[in-house]
Design a protein that fits this description.
Helix 1 (18-27) packs parallel to helix 2, helix 1 packs parallel to helix 10 (286-305) and helix 5 (131-141) runs parallel beside helix 6. The protein has an 8-stranded parallel barrel with strand order 1-2-3-4-5-6-7-14, surrounded by 7 helices. It has a 3-stranded antiparallel beta sheet with strand order 8-9-10, with no helix packed on it. The protein has 2 domains: 10-176 and 258-333, Alpha-Beta Barrel (TIM Barrel); 188-252, no CATH class. It has 11 helices and 15 strands. It is 33% helix and 21% strand. The longest helix has 20 residues, at 286-305. It starts with 9 loop residues before the first strand and ends in a 9-residue tail after the last strand. The mean pLDDT is 90.
Length: 338
């Protein structure tokens, strides 16, 4: 028996390149998010992101297919010079972005002052975990959507939605972080650069791969993050996902490589009033973007049109191929001790 069609959350998908953007659009994204090739966005990897010509082409392609383009300007402006972030806001508006994803209050203020009709989304990097915090940004800077950090339970998400007065976006799939986003200073001690300003947890300039005694060491500058056998798959080194010896046991001391996957909670997220579901992964391949987008497009369409929603085995099989560490978690949504 078919139900009354529920409110359909927007599917927001990553685009680290023009090809990834096009594949996300073709796979059914409602919106794509991207960044410039500089420290104004939180995925500032070499070889990723967009120059002006690519943004124009991407915006044209997305708009031709009825898809919105969100520009991530979601790092914190440098204390010595805010002008690169202000210029990035102006560029995003001129290049045709439909909304800006922002974290820094100075950047929000500039956008509100210079481009009052531009839609603002509060980035997960702003670390707003309560409806009162979100209300401040709404009242002071006019934000229209907030992306929640991945530390809230389902009931807490619902509570924020009922009281925040703006659209709420949550992450549905992708890599996790043990920190409350925007508050991480961990990698700064090893690399000398903050992920909240430089736009990457482990800057390539700090990454070292050293062959020693038949093994490969992964280091951030002089800090040993992991040691791999010569034939063992190697992960990009980050402090929080390193393997360390603690009390004589070598294991993942802070966090195992794993991906958030909330497919089984999709009906509850929709019932709670979530307005958008985000897929993490601007640093991932276009193939990742395309396949994950297709799975989530099918899942959302089924969840909003039928009372008999269930996670299909084929969906799980497809997502398993792209999960970090080939394992999934519900993250903070699953707290059996509560």
């Amino acid at each position: 028996m078919q139900s009354t069609v529920k409110n359909r959350p927007e599917l927001v998908c990553p685009a680290g390149s023009l090809r990834a953007l096009q594949m996300a659009v073709d796979a059914g994204a409602d919106a794509v998010y991207l960044g410039l090739r500089d420290a104004t966005n939180a995925r500032n990897f070499v070889g990723l992101n967009f120059d002006d010509g690519q943004i124009r082409a991407g915006v044209a392609y997305a708009h031709e297919h009825g898809v919105n383009v969100l520009m991530a300007l979601n790092t914190f402006a440098g204390a010595d010079d805010t002008s690169p972030w202000f210029r990035a806001v102006d560029r995003a508006v001129e290049l045709g972005a439909d909304a800006l994803i922002v974290a820094d209050t100075a950047v929000m203020a500039h956008a509100r002052r210079q481009h009052p009709v531009m839609r603002l989304h509060l980035s997960v990097q702003a670390s707003a975990t309560t409806y009162a915090a979100i209300a401040f940004y709404r009242e002071r800077y006019g934000i229209q959507r907030a992306v929640l950090p991945r530390v809230l339970t389902l009931s807490q998400v619902a509570h924020v939605i009922r009281n925040a007065g703006v659209d709420i976006e949550v992450f549905g799939f992708g890599s996790l972080c043990v920190m409350v986003e925007g508050r991480c200073a961990l990698s700064s001690y090893a690399t000398g650069k903050s992920p909240n300003n430089a736009g990457v947890c482990s800057p390539p300039s700090a990454v070292r791969w050293i062959e020693r005694a038949g093994a490969v060491e992964a280091r951030l500058n002089d800090v040993l993050i992991d040691r791999y056998a010569s034939d063992e798959p190697r992960a990009y080194p980050t402090l929080c996902k390193g393997r360390f010896e603690v009390n004589g046991v070598r294991d993942y001391a802070l966090e195992e490589p794993t991906s958030l996957n909330t497919l089984e909670l999709l009906p509850q997220l929709i019932d709670a009033g979530v307005k958008a579901i985000k897929i993490e992964g601007r640093q991932r391949s276009p193939s990742y973007v395309a396949e994950v987008t297709r799975v989530w497009r099918a899942a959302i369409d089924l969840a909003v049109s039928s009372n008999r929603y269930a996670v299909l085995p084929a969906w799980s099989e497809q997502l398993n191929r792209w999960a970090e560490g080939q394992q999934h978690t519900l993250g903070a949504y699953d707290r059996p001790w509560r």
